[in-house]
């Protein structure tokens, strides 16, 4: 009781400044950029998707908890939270309110009937409103994929459900529709088609995508679907070599952690659309999900997934945590390799990975946005494999190289403009900047010392045309420049 009271009190105090914050949609509705690689608002402002998987937020958190969680997301730099709008037929929230009633003939009726006249959809409305106050989009998965594969919804029901959702939320500023939910698109595609098209027929304001099964990209089934505006892939939760006897295995062995490969494989489908990793390995979850004896993914693992995907060309990234995605707390069952010692969701908010994701967003927004491309030719020689892989992205006058394992890297500074380049190292865990020096435009080998032997020393080598002022030599943190980068891009 004391813990929940503290959450409520803290949420109230944090709400004081939230309403005055600039919101992403102040520049208009989200749309796909002209080069089909990124997202932006209607006025041209770059939108870098930084998401959290709060899957069971509507079902397991009360009003005070939801407010506290969303404000913590805002403070950590997140601008999207992905949720399961319904994870059952019906779903029930913490107040005991059902999302719908099911007649004997199987017909659905969406309902707000509930104790104290506070229904399931009232609570969903509240969550969306609080998210809006905090400048956060709700990525709404209307119904989880297991309900579709289990035959809990047919095309006729999906059409009616889509109409209900679209009419209710078409005017909310902070909705992104996510079809699917950890499911292959060939399973009852008529349901997804009916749900998506019924929403799109009414809601002209919001983007739509599809969340696929692990190790798949939505482009495999929906590359030409007119309702799909951008792609998602789920790189999944397995470590290198962890095939686990699964016959339905669409990627080569020993590439399980190589989430960078999904960007190119998605863009191989036409037409090109933006893409992001909507579910990589979660922090503090067993590798492979189900075996409690397995080691767990750490903050440096989730950082690596973020930088690999974004530098390969993704339009953003989604983080996840074992406890947060389930909204675990006392009295609720655990899953996914539970050893009985899982922490509560509000404790997990203090785990390092949750607060480290903002550094990749701030870094990318520090430079001209829409010109950025992945470019492995920046790296001279071998790119490296598995944990030694280097990955590069660049604009016209800046380049970024992510190095997970402190391996020597030979970088071709001639790939960007300028006779001289200023070079920095950014610590991926802290966003701390260290100025390395000024270098002539040629291929140079950089060696980053690891002060923590046995642990990754991951970070980003940053090289900038010395005539540009995206960063200063005195700057100590990448966070200092994120808004300046955004404004500069609009004026060029």
Concise structural overview:
With about 500 residues, the protein is α/β, with parallel strands linked by helices. It is about 25% helix and about 20% strand.
Structural class: alpha/beta
Termini separation comes to 54 Å
Secondary structure tally, helices? 15
Would you report the number of β strands?
22
The percent range for helix content is 25-40%
**Proportion of β residues?**
15-25%
Judging from the principal axes of the Cα atoms, what is the shape? globular
Rg to the nearest angstrom? 22 Å
Low-pLDDT sequence parts: 481-492
Specify the biggest β-sheet.
6 strands, parallel
SSE inventory with pairings:
Blueprint: H1 2-14, E1 30-32, E2 39-41, E3 46-47, E4 49-53, H2 57-60, H3 63-75, E5 80-84, E6 100-102, E7 108-110, H4 120-133, E8 137-141, H5 145-149, H6 155-169, E9 175-180, H7 189-202, E10 208-211, E11 216-217, H8 219-222, E12 231-234, H9 261-267, E13 275-277, H10 299-311, E14 316-319, H11 322-326, H12 345-348, H13 352-356, H14 358-364, E15 373-374, E16 390-394, E17 398-403, E18 409-412, E19 420-427, E20 433-440, E21 443-446, E22 459-465, H15 482-491
Parallel strand pairs: 4-5, 4-14, 5-8, 8-9, 9-10, 12-13
Antiparallel strand pairs: 1-2, 2-3, 6-7, 11-12, 15-16, 16-17, 17-22, 18-21, 19-20, 19-22
Helix pairs in contact: 1-3, 3-4, 6-7
